[in-house]
Amino acid sequence: MSHHRIDKRFADLKHAGRKGLIPFITAGDPLPEATVHIMHALVAAGADLIELGVPYSDPVADGPTIQHSSERAIARGVGIKQILAWVSEFRQIDSTTPIVLMGYLNPIEIYGYARFAEQASMAGVDGVLIVDVPVEEAEAVAPLREMGLCEIFLVAPTTTDRRLAAIRARAEGFIYYVSFAGITGASQLDTAAVRARVEHIKQGGSIPVAVGFGVRDATSAVSVAESADAVVIGSALVAQLAATSDRDSAVAAAHAFLAPIRAALDQAVRR
Amino acid sequence: MSMNKPIPVSDFHAYPDAQGHFAEYGGIFMPETLMPPLEELTAAYLAMREDPEFIAEFERDLKYYVGRPSPIYHAERLSNKIGGAQILLKREDLNHTGAHKINNTIGQALVARRMGKRRIIAETGAGQHGVATATVCARFGLDCIVYMGAVDIERQKINVYRMKLLGATVVPVVSGSKTLKDALNEAMRDWVTNVADTFYIIGTVAGPHPYPMMVRDFNAVVGREARAQMLEQYGRLPDVLTACVGGGSNAIGLFHAFLNDREVAMVGAEAAGDGIETGRHAASLSAGRPGVLHGNRTYVICDDNGQITETHSISAGLDYPGVGPEHAFLKDSGRARYVGITDDEALAAFHELARTEGILAALESSHAVAQAIKLARELPKDQLILCNLSGRGDKDVHTIAAREGIEL
Lengths: 271, 408
Fold this sequence. Notes:
The complex is a heterodimer of chains A (271) and B (408).
Chain A: H1 2-16, E1 20-26, H2 35-44, E2 50-53, H3 64-75, H4 80-93, E3 99-103, H5 105-111, H6 113-123, E4 127-130, H7 142-146, E5 150-151, E6 153-155, H8 161-170, E7 175-178, H9 191-203, E8 209-212, H10 218-225, E9 230-233, H11 235-242, H12 247-270
Parallel strand pairs in A: 1-2, 1-9, 2-3, 3-4, 4-5, 6-7, 7-8, 8-9
Helix pairs in contact in A: 2-4, 2-12, 4-6, 10-12, 11-12
Chain B: E1 21-22, E2 25-26, H1 35-48, H2 52-66, E3 72-74, H3 76-82, E4 86-91, H4 101-114, E5 119-124, H5 128-140, E6 143-149, H6 150-155, H7 157-165, E7 169-173, H8 180-193, E8 198-200, H9 211-219, H10 221-234, E9 240-245, H11 249-255, E10 265-273, H12 284-287, E11 289-293, E12 296-300, H13 325-333, E13 337-342, H14 343-357, H15 363-378, E14 384-389, H16 397-403
Parallel strand pairs in B: 4-14, 5-6, 5-8, 6-7, 9-10, 9-14, 10-13
Antiparallel strand pairs in B: 1-2, 3-4, 11-12
């Protein structure tokens, strides 16, 4: 069931000749009561899949923007139970947009793998991307896979061919290519290098490749989408949301941020 | 809370396995970007530890630069005053830079140099590992950047200045709780960004594989020496070992050579802060639960949402919400036990050792001394307790004075 939503979305995109747009937001930031509304606004603005960040106290792969958004969400007591409730609420209206939970392992380990797998699957989560679970340790999250949640893996500029083969053998849904060696929100995007790497990753199989880290606006999204199947935008969106003070302004900011990027991506493909 | 049955273990020296697992603990829980460099480091280190030239280089520096071997000293007046078992101190406080930490930083700096990495990063809590890293970077001509929590910088000003005198750059970390765990996060972010030319010298037996193994190997000189010294000076092994446990590097250093000597008991002293029941402590093994932090599975202190929570100890070096995975394994296997020592107990032990033996112990090590005193009270006079005096207390005199309301 869950696989189907992600796989179907990428198949539809390919069929339509479009590029996927994947916004990332931290669940519960800027305000817990805004999260579900922001998700719907992102879909209305053209999101193809939503990455919902599970806040964690020690996010070693994240830059200051996402660190601070996690700290704010944690200060408001946001945890997995509440996040899954939000996904259920979102699914009452939207049954087609895939949702991937992105975060670190400890919150899931403490919640309990079997319990998490069952409840996440029931809530309508489609996949998980656990930043600190490399392919070597993937057995730790086997119960998630068994409940039909897609295991999404990162590939980095440093990833060797031997590792890439192991990741490809296990990866489901799509591969998330980290565009540079660094933390989220940094600006080191080298489009030519990304293109070469993405083409290399694609040579080995048919799994779609999304590119994230360093994509911040329409220009960078369009340049990355030349080679990638989808682009992920996180820190730049999270920063926009952080500047808002109530639910309605957060929802408006989410839409205003994403819609032009959607338009630029679609226009670039048409050209 | 884990109530695992003891794991039967035939050879404690057979751990970790090739993926860095100590039974269910350890491993490599890191972002993909760092996996290839970790693989590279593991391969390089495994080759070096079999290389007689590398071993000779390491041992030469331990002897002539660090000043090893450190003696075992019989704390006779202290033992007599207590009236129970005999307390013996492994004097790691007499090493160059004043703690066991330099055993590891010498080893890792040699690994970095052989791998051609000239930019060194490190994290530090109390500043002891930072000083030990800055020291070896000066010794080997390497660039040194030390990440330190802003709160720790405030409470360890002297060590901050020592690092600067040694040519290191100290970077304040203002994220999270602004202490050791956040310094570790920031060092990892630096590493993920500068992975091509940078070597990360982790200061304790935590982090992703191969660090828990590598840091243990470099500190295991403490236990190897101690085992030989015991046989030479006393004709037998000690009855009990005790050491303080934050991340756990000095404790593993002492314990490791004795792990297969089943008759030798082992007790790790964790920081119970204001008391474990108050929630203001740093006793991961005594009061935490299995989880994943900083690249390995171990006991962690976190809330029900899996968020790592703030810890407390009078000693900055023990103020860490995780612990080395090998200690988690030793706890579950029943080979070692771990107990909490409060701030007050550690302070009392600090004064007792100062007055009876003329030794100012580090606040970290004072936790081990407090545990040794407790054990000595319970055990007969002919029993031998070997306590790792992992560092000297000069760095802590301001903290102690402030705690006791004395203005210097």
